[in-house]
Amino acid sequence: MKIFLAVCLLAVFFGASSAVVTRYVCEHSRISINCGNHKINVLCAAYGRSVPYSSRCAGSASSPSLSCLAQTSISKVNQLCDGKSSCSVDASNSVFGDPCVYTYKYLQVTYECVLN
């Protein structure tokens, strides 16, 4: 998980040519991205958990897994959003699988809007 996040940070730092946006939604919610007349360029996506409940998306488990990531995160978000002007993605196990059972997860997406 830490290696993946480091790669995401490098991709964002070196690959972004315009304003980069990072957004997250809690499990069972939907993220909507709209770039208007531009196209979405997904830089990074992660479904799982890497921070405590007190930092993001509070859950009820007493000791949540803090190092879980759905391996399909980037490919699923790319499939649904990359190159489109708008998209919506559900933060759910039905989309990404369940990388950490009994842990309340979130979807984090880093993207930029680029010219067509």
Can you give a write-up of this model?
- This protein is of the alpha+beta class and 116 residues long.
- The protein has helices at residues 2-15, 73-81, 93-96; strands at 20-26, 30-34, 39-49, 68-69, 86-90, 106-114.
- The radius of gyration is 14 Å and the shape is elongated.
- The chain is built from three helices and six strands, in the order αββββαβαβ.
- The mean pLDDT is 86.
- A four-stranded antiparallel sheet has the order 1-6-3-4. Strands 2-5 form a two-stranded antiparallel ribbon.
Rounded mean pLDDT is 86
Q: What structural class is derived from the secondary structure elements?
A: alpha+beta
H-E order: HEEEEHEHE
SS field, number of helical segments: 3
